[in-house]
Records
---
Amino acid sequence: MGSSSIPNGVEQQKQEKNLAKGAWYDTVDFLNLLLVIIIPIAGCIAAFWTPLYWQTFIFAVGYYFLTGLGVTAGSHRLWSHRSYVASLPLRVFLALVGAGAVEGSIRWWAKGHRVHHRYTDTPKDPYSIKKGLIFAHLGWMILKTDSKEKVRTDISDLDSDGVVVWQHKNYLQLVIIMAFIFPMVIAGLGWNDWMGGLVYAGIIRMFVVQQSNSLSHWLGDQPFDDNHSPRNNLITALVILGEGWHNFHHEFPSDYRAGIEWYQYDPTKWVIWIWEKMGLATNLTEFRQNEIEKGRVQQLQKKVDIQRSQLNWGIPLHDLPVIEWDDYVEQSKNGRQLVSIAGIVHDVSDFIGAHPGGKQIILTAVGKDATAMFNGGVYDHTNAAHNLLSTMRYAVVRGGMEVEAWKRPEDVRVPTDTLGNLIVGPHGQETRQL
Ligand SMILES: [Zn+2]
Ligand SMILES: [Zn+2]
């Protein structure tokens, strides 16, 4: 967890300049350019004169799921986050289909991903959404990062996993076999469609799998935390086998689930669960529900507080002018339509005509202490009535009822929300006397 390699702002600017100034061929990863841009374009062109057979189509969709799982259940949830333990046969399977996804070796992918979680939204985030959607989508695979900007992460666990090391050492051969030769051979031997197997189940399928992660920091809502960019979204979940519930994932990365609700589409989670039933996976990690709900409630609270701040709750008591009782009576006699309830004086002149109980009854309260009358003496007013009354506040009476105590702004009896605004609950209006 050492942070000694964090460069200061000036160094970072220099690095960015160097990257911009340097010869373009120094900054481009040609192998990835070939695999991510050139071969897919060639495949799309070849598709124009390659007929698509229905067997090949079904196989390509199935193989898309398998190779996608190599990344989502393999490189991501198993090797980056250790959210479950996989047996040797399962790890070999994931390493093979993962190579067919052509998103980099497990070792390379998981290392970058650990950096992504640790430095989300900062310049050290290898696929930072702050560098734009195109960079976060494909640019990060094609452009080499300046070596000085590379961040140290602990991947000793990956280096001691024989399957990971083997896949990393033989990555290019495995890519050629798993991404192109294997689907070509299956379609060729199966229903004599060698070319369709290569173009559709090989190249175009690979291209679709590669269009993965970036939208999850761009599109959707944030039910668990909005301090960073990760978002929850069904569309992203549909494209990348359930990885789109990314706001939850960044909060609870060691959870083998990304979509925690039963109705959230997360086939990666379902498959890991099935592997557990088959005895291939163990130790599936679930974050404690209590902690998950805490995050959800805090985020809900934040949204409620924003809504609260947009409403008119009346002038806070401690901001009202203080008047003497005699002054209140005097002003009422001289034509002001003021009503004192619980020591708080309200100007009801704009409301008299709209009073549901009639004009007359409210006029009898002018210039008097109407506390008992308002709180059940004549009619036990609703919460809505107390809320409405608070918007008519005019002054507080010195020594009137117990309001002097409420006038102190440091009063701890009054709860405030995360924005510092008063929380007035359904029975919290000061005019309510039980
Ligand atoms: Zn992310
Ligand atoms: Zn992750």
---
Amino acid sequence: MARKPGTKAAPEPLFRRPVKSGGKAWWRFFRRIGRIEIECIDLKEARSELHRIAALLDPNELTRFRNALTETARVEFATCRATLRAVLCRRLGCSSEQLSLDPDASGKPQGTVLGRAVDCHFNVSHSRPHALIARSPRRPVGVDIEIRRRVGRSEAIVDRMFSASEARSIQRRLLEGDPNLFLDLWTAKEALAKALGTGILRNPQKLRLPKSLINGAHSATIQNYGDSGGHWTIQRLGNSDYAAALAYETGPARNEFARMEYNSLTNERH
Ligand SMILES: CC(C)(COP(=O)(O)OP(=O)(O)OC[C@H]1O[C@@H](n2cnc3c(N)ncnc32)[C@H](O)[C@@H]1OP(=O)(O)O)[C@@H](O)C(=O)NCCC(=O)NCCS
């Protein structure tokens, strides 16, 4: 039927029916924290629907999907990206064709609709067989998940990836024998790095966690942090099967002085 002049076409839904795979959804709502919503993906469920999922990707994503080195990497990338598209299209009221998800200089995907930056932040993390997608309406967000496993040489990783003062506290707690400690703190650090957009590998020791989190707190806030000089909250989400953490900006920088304070703090030698 022809549209009346001046009326807009209804946004085309990405998935016409709820996303189903063998009668079971491959993603579901997981948790809400303030205004942040987190979806959980079951990568095993999605595997049998790969052709349908791949059809939802844009040409660049399709190339990355085809060039992935392993079947596992293909499934993880395509499923997370197609689900991210579904989540964002629903929130933004756009079609998947209108949405671009291109990486910025540090690799963090940024959304644009018809060339305009979207007013919505998001982040993805996968650790087989699950993945998480966090979406925040206004402020940057980072999420990380790791399935619980024994991590070999965790003491050496702690020395390399955490600052000297962090490493001292963590090594002391590792000696107490908490099997969950390493991955809990690792996911916290990754989530913070991903919220800031820096990635963890550029300068991991500079990216310090609040002391209370290292000492076992469930969540903690750091003030005047990152290039923006904002306040950031890091919250653990995991249980005995997986470690996970969410990091999000909770407030803007108070002033330029806060940024300088952060820079001098993070340039400190340990
Ligand atoms: C890339 C990185 C941001 C996260 O990597 P990761 O933990 O291996 O992977 P995750 O599944 O948690 O996250 C990957 C997603 O993060 C997003 N991402 C990529 N670069 C990002 C950045 N600079 N900031 C925020 N998010 C980023 C992407 O959406 C990516 O998924 P996609 O490529 O399918 O779009 C980075 O921190 C990294 O390289 N980490 C090293 C991992 C490592 O050494 N692990 C050892 C654990 S014991």
